[in-house]
Amino acid sequence: MDRISCDLLIIGAGSGGLSVAAGAAQMGADVVLLERHKMGGDCLNYGCVPSKALIQSAKTAHAMRTAGQYGITPVEPQVDYAAAKDHVQSVIDAIAPMDSVERFEGFGVRVIQEEGRFISDTEVQAGDHIITARRIVIATGSSPFVPPIPGLDSVPYLTNESLWDLRELPKELIVIGGGPIGMEMAQAHLRLGSKVTVLEGAKALGKDDPEMAAVVLDNLRSEGLEIVEDATASEIRGAEGAIEVETKEGRVFKGTHLLVAVGRKANTASLDLEKAGIETTRTGIKVDDKLKTTNSKVYAIGDVAGGLQFTHVAGYHAGVVVQSAMFGLPAKAKTDHIPWATYTDPELAQVGLTEAQAKEKHGDALDVVRFHYNHNDRAQAERHTKGLIKVMIHKGRPVGASIAGHQAGEHINFWAFALANNLKMRAITSMVSPYPTYGELNKRAAGTYFSPKLFESPMVKRVVRLVQRWLP
Ligand SMILES: Cc1cc2nc3c(=O)[nH]c(=O)nc-3n(C[C@H](O)[C@H](O)[C@H](O)COP(=O)(O)OP(=O)(O)OC[C@H]3O[C@@H](n4cnc5c(N)ncnc54)[C@H](O)[C@@H]3O)c2cc1C
Ligand SMILES: NC(=O)c1ccc[n+]([C@@H]2O[C@H](COP(=O)([O-])OP(=O)(O)OC[C@H]3O[C@@H](n4cnc5c(N)ncnc54)[C@H](O)[C@@H]3O)[C@@H](O)[C@H]2O)c1
User: Fold this and answer.
1) How far is the CA of 179 from the centre of ligand 2 (A)?
2) Ranges for the FAD/NAD(P)-binding domain (predicted)?
């Protein structure tokens, strides 16, 4: 056995682990990084990157079909699904060097491509190595949760891991789960030419504000996506190419392929956490607000920590841990300024409190303003007029923003900045936006907050009349 001692040991080289490793090593710490499978983790190999690349193929097909609205003869695209998958792989390949062993070794990180597991509360074994470290970071991510639905194990099914190997377009795709994975992949396959049915046990896009989710769901339905809500898959039958899913209510749906997208399970099984005194919860590793586990020398970050499961959250956690583990600062992880976006078309994005959460917290002291895309001239010019932005305001400051519409994921950055810096609505109206941009939506939403105060105030009218009388 090779014994290694270092300042920081990181288990898992995905979004979270890589960010900690890069930061800590470049600040001079002696860092060891373990990865049992692919550098870059889920986001690069099976998640964000391939899904967004496939969505772009689907958008292109959709643009060809709908070109008529811009005066261009529409055509039914010849979709080459295998070529679209090649495009997906080449996007992964283009990004992969950023997450590569070579790049991290260049930072001075010792990368060991082995699975890590605790053998005591201070030691981790990875292959022939036993590693002790001043601090340990668990960043092992999550995997697709495969529910114990009777019959599921007897039919071929896809998850976000195996989907990328498929080279032939599914003729009829059934998606179980109407969360972000299910809805993004359902629309992409619909636009690429599959017939797609989504079976959702509760409400589709149910983690978002229902008013905003409805904008997206209405559009998806109008494109031809079948979305069946309150439809829990309870039994599965059939064989390759002929799969049947029965719901609790007894409805039967038939398809050639099945995608299971019903959430995630934290990757803790192989870590032998009990040997290190690290406790888990129903959703992942138990952490405090400093991301420390029940073993005070060990942190858990990203998906495995069981909270919000996004790449940018894993990256944010990494920053918190670097401050705490490298500088001993009392850094805490917060969630109230974390945005998220679902990359359907139109997109759906949120930061801070939803309207329902804000009403519960602030009651009558809450103002809610809305501004619709169809009042934005750029949206009109490009015919992306579906959607709205909604801002929740308390005592002159935004406490939440929700956007459903074209590029909502881009526009939420603005409100994420405002919330992270506790800006006032006045700071937003003082900005001048170039015309015509979608960004004007943000300023106009803020203007909607002030306009009743300005245009419906008898006091303002009195002052204006008085000043006008005396002005030379
Ligand atoms: C289809 C899909 C689309 C997504 N799209 C988005 C998106 O658009 N935007 C967004 O923000 N998020 C998205 N996500 C979520 C995002 O991928 C995750 O939140 C993110 O990857 C979490 O990063 P992580 O570092 O916690 O884990 P991961 O990136 O999963 O990395 C964990 C790594 O640890 C390794 N590992 C596990 N156990 C061990 C062990 N014992 N020893 C050594 N190595 C180990 C794994 O092999 C893996 O490489 C998507 C997810 C999916 C599935
Ligand atoms: N754009 C993004 O940022 C993005 C994209 C994809 C995934 N992600 C991350 O990955 C996580 C996991 O995504 P997900 O979509 O798998 O999970 P999810 O938990 O968000 O949604 C799963 C859905 O499946 C439904 N469901 C569960 N069991 C069912 C059954 N038997 N029959 C029918 N429906 C059932 C649930 O009601 C739920 O709505 C997300 O929460 C998100 O954090 C992010």
Assistant:
1) 4
2) 7-317
